[in-house]
Write the structure tokens for this entry.
Amino acid sequence: MSIQYDYPVEGVGLGLRRDFFDELLATPDLEIDFMELAPENWLKFGGRQGRQLRTLTERLPFVCHGLSLDLGGIQPLNETYLHSLKKFFNEHDIRAYTEHLSYCGDSGHLYDLMPIPFTEEAVFYVADRIRRVQDILERKIGIENVSFYAMPSQEMTEKEFINAVLQEADCGLLFDVNNTYVNSINHQYDAEAYMQEMPSERIMYLHMAGHFDEADDLKIDTHGQPVKEQVWSLLEKTYQQHGLVPTLLERDFNIPPLPELMLEVEQIRSYQTAWRQQNVT
């Protein structure tokens, strides 16, 4: 099966972290095809750090993955922030912007990502907010399937809810392979069947990350460990189902030296190479 969509980036990416920022600047020939940053962490930096970031965004394609837009929240969207994002995206030629399909605020920021109730009312509510974001930014955004531990109110399944939001908002999908595996264990569903129900034509890129095995039936999405064998297997099956989707490695805690991180980047690349050998003539 050979599937090719108009992805914003290609190949294998790595999430930008300050732990290895200086090393990245000093290593222009590092085998990374694109990078991702959280705009909240870089939006207000000017001067030397701003110029250094510009050096990287001129060197490599970048995407942005937001942490605080609060798509499912009850407070009005922060449109001033969205206009600042738009300016930042233009300055750094950001190829895509994604956010979590969750809420993270009430009277203030909760510093966590809470699941949106899987209801028809919530579909229309969050889709309306996504459309407003897209109108301001003048681009389609992507939503990410999040990990969660308390099951929200349900009129539909998680995969039905995500597909309904994608359709109603006419937006893209950042498909997180690790979150899918974590949720499948914690909430007892088939990760592969869930993955197969995602619409190929809306997937912008993939996330890979590690998790912590709290128990056989409880996995914690920490982004602080190496990617587990079961998640690698699900990545391979995702390529088989959806084609050669650009894929990015996230690591947020217990960040090892950059050469060690690059081993996992190269492991993603090996799965992509194997897919090409099987599917491209």
In short: Residues 258-279 form the longest helix (22 residues). The chain has a mean pLDDT of 91.
